[in-house]
Amino acid sequence: MTWTLSLVCSAFAFGEGEPVKLVRVPDGGLQPQTVMDQNGVLHLVYLKGDPQACDVIYARREPLQTNFSRSLRVNNQPGSAVAIGTVRGAQVALGRNGRLHVAWNGSDHAQPRVADGSPMLYARLNEAGDAFEPQRNVMTSTHNLDGGGSVAADDRGNVYVIWHGHPSDGPPDELHRGVFMAKSTDDGKTLATEKRVNPDLTGACGCCGLKAFVNRQGNLAVLYRSAAKTGGRDVTLLISRNCGESFQSKIVGPWRIAMCPMSTMALGEGEGDELLAMWEARGKVYAQSFKGVDSGEQGRVVENAGENQKHPVFATSSSGEMLMAWTEGTGWAKGGAVAWAIMDAKGVLKAQGRTEGVPVWGGVAAVAEKDRGFTIFF
Questions:
Q1: Cis peptide leading into 78, omega within 30 of 0?
Q2: Cα(211)–Cα(37) distance, integer angstroms
Q3: Proportion of the chain in helix, strand, coil states, percent, rounded to 5
Q4: Beta bridge partners of 226
Q5: Is residue 366 within 8 Å of 315, Cβ to Cβ?
């Protein structure tokens, strides 16, 4: 089934038994990212501390529990992450045998680094599952890291850390930024030298984050905002069906704008082999589903009365219901609200809501719980 979305939202109010639980991130943390494994264990990473030089924290919640376990610091160098901008936080993926992989943009003083600018850092959970291995910089020949990178992994041992930056021999403008990938075939033990993966050689919008994801079939997808000579800052989908050896490209969210909107993307599993994608443009969030670069229309706006919508996420339940969530009113050094909508398997609106309280430099994460409800962390 091809997933599309057409909403005309009206006001809802909820009391007892509301379909969405709103939960603050532990420790007053920022920019949560979540992934749930096949056993129902919820894995959470977030940022904590000085926004200019903070830490990446990991916690897990066991099935049928409400509290998280004792947290672990992911970064071995204190203060080597950055929350400012809300686009450069930690990203998380589960790989073979449930191993956790985390990637994040390094702060100004983060180590190790071998090129100009901040490093793109990666760490994985050790074999015992009680600590993270020392962080590594995956940038060897690229520099000028800016908008946030991402990480994806599959159950065959492939791990992909992906970011955008400049090659060592290129001009330092957005038109010459590229999307780069460092790949591992041994569960992150070693990572190959990065290579450029956007085949159309478009630039990349400097301050926007990208998102990487591997679906059940092992296809790798990347969603990023390109930068063109014509002024386009188009959301672009890359798909590889051969474990990152080659990619196809498709513009899914065209937008002509003379500035970087500092946006983030969402990308994840849909029905069958479909990908679900969300992004932000013109103050609204958009969504679409794709079987590949040769299918799917351009994104459709999620019709809603809210304004200044940013940082969308989604979660899909086993029954086919989907929660879509985003922030409203957030900006540079400014907090805001979390808004959400739930659709049934046919794309019909079931419920929606909005709550103030997203902190400065904050974001949201969405989880489909085993009891068919949803949780939003903010």
A1: no
A2: 19
A3: 0, 45, 55
A4: 204
A5: yes
The predicted-structure confidence for 189-219, as pLDDT tens digits, reads as follows 999 999 999 998 889 999 999 999 999 999 9
237 close to 293: Cβ distance less than 8 angstroms? yes
Cβ count within 10 A of residue 195: 14
Q: What is the pLDDT of residues 104-156, one digit of tens each?
A: 999 999 999 887 789 999 999 999 999 999 999 999 999 999 999 999 999 99
Decide: 43 and 94 in contact? Cβ < 8 Å: yes
Query: What is the residue whose two structure tokens read 């992450």?
Result: 81
Report the relative pairing of strands 72-73 and 91-94 from DSSP bridges: unpaired
Give the Cα separation of 306 and 303 in Å (integer). 9
Q: How far apart are CA 269 and CA 210, in angstroms?
A: 16
Backbone angles phi, psi at 27, to 5 degrees: 60, 20
3-class SS at 6?
Answer: coil
Structure tokens given for 187 = 């569960």
Q: Are strands 220-227 and 211-214 parallel, antiparallel or unpaired?
A: antiparallel
Provide Rg for the chain, Cα atoms. Answer: 19
Q: Are 237 and 252 in contact (CB under 8 A)?
A: yes
The answer to whether residues 198 and 190 touch, using CB atoms and an 8 Å cutoff, is no
CATH architecture observed for domain 29-287: 6 Propeller (2.120)
Q: What is the rounded CA–CA span in Å between residue 232 and residue 258?
A: 8
CB count within 10 Å of CB 273 equals 13
Q: Name the nearest CA neighbour of 213 among 289, 288, 286, 160.
A: 160
Domain positions in the chain: 29-287
Reported residue count of the chain is 378
